[in-house]
Design brief:
Helix 5 runs antiparallel to helix 6. The protein is α/β, with parallel strands linked by helices and 286 residues long. The protein has two domains: 107 residues, Response regulator (Rossmann fold); 159 residues, 3-Layer(aba) Sandwich (Rossmann fold). The strands form two sheets. Strands 2-1-3-4 form a four-stranded parallel beta sheet, with helices on both faces. A four-stranded parallel beta sheet has the order 6-5-7-8, with helices on both faces. It is built from nine helices and eight strands.
Length: 286
């Protein structure tokens, strides 16, 4: 397009940080999904320490027509990146800049550059570690004796996304267990002793589940046509069975067909915290 903005078929997004780049990477992934993620390739450059590294990355970005998203704590790295990108004509954004500068102005204090503040070894940190360990141990109904300790229990048939959801919740300090619902196999009796407000169900449409299961079998080198696992009739019977269990328990159910893990986790967290507060106010009444 002469005289206008050049539109690239594929754009490389360099994510730079002097920590682990987790915050910048989450922001980058969230945004790029809104522009058809296949057209944006994210390249990570975490734990940067030297200004020389910044020079080399800026040169590489200029050579490859990449853009840069940075989340630096150190002011010298931010300044070096800004100067190098300006000199080389590379577009770059500071992911922390708006909030950091706004809070500095309001509070009248400079932001600390202490990397230890990102992941302090406090009570919350150890709770997250404990939650991850718990969710791995209570994954896929593997240890029913652990269910009594759960903050949240997630139910669903195969390939509804129970395990990744529980791991996501665990990283937010929630002890999350999950149980697969399989026709002909009764759920563990411990499930029916858990208050219903702590239990959540996941469902997907049969057509989407069929596609997911077929891809899964293909990845494992199996022939989808040789098993009932991916057949719509089988899936619909599983859905009917699971729906009966969920209705019997009287739990909140999420249709995750077109939901992201983040969206479902946010709603579960909000409901869990609100319900926990209500039950604590009323002396733990069910």
């Amino acid at each position: 397009m002469d005289g206008g903005v050049k539109h690239w078929e594929t754009v490389e997004l360099f994510v730079l940080s002097d920590a682990l780049s987790e915050e910048a990477e989450v922001a980058a992934a969230w945004c790029t999904r809104r522009f058809e993620k296949r057209d944006v390739e994210i390249c990570r450059f975490p734990s940067l320490r030297k200004t020389e590294d910044i020079d080399q990355i800026a040169a590489l970005a200029a050579e490859r027509g990449a853009v840069i998203l940075s989340c630096f704590l150190r002011a010298d790295l931010r300044l070096t990146l800004e100067e190098e990108c300006s000199r080389r004509g590379v577009e770059q954004w500071d992911g922390y800049a708006p909030l950091r500068s706004g809070l500095e102005r309001i509070l009248g204090l400079p932001a600390s550059e202490d990397r230890g503040l990102l992941h302090p070894m406090d009570t919350e940190y150890f709770r997250r570690v404990r939650a991850v360990e718990y969710s791995l141990g209570a994954d896929d109904g593997g240890n029913p004796s652990l269910l009594g300790e759960a903050d949240v229990v997630v139910l669903g048939i195969s390939r509804t996304g129970k395990s990744p959801l529980c791991v996501y919740l665990a990283h937010r300090g929630i002890l999350a267990a999950n149980i697969p619902l399989v026709p002909g196999l009764d759920p563990p009796p411990q499930l029916f002793r858990i208050p219903s407000w702590r239990i959540f169900g996941l469902v997907r449409t049969s057509s989407v589940l069929g596609e997911i299961r077929t891809r899964r079998m293909a990845m494992m080198g199996l022939n989808p046509g040789e098993t009932e696992y991916g057949q719509i009739g089988t899936i619909e019977r599983e859905i009917a069975y699971a729906s009966g269990i969920m209705e019997r328990l009287g739990i909140t159910v999420f249709d995750v067909t077109s939901r992201s893990i983040e969206e479902t986790a946010y709603e579960i967290l909000s409901l869990y915290r609100a319900r926990r507060e209500i039950h604590s106010l009323y002396g733990g009444a069910e």
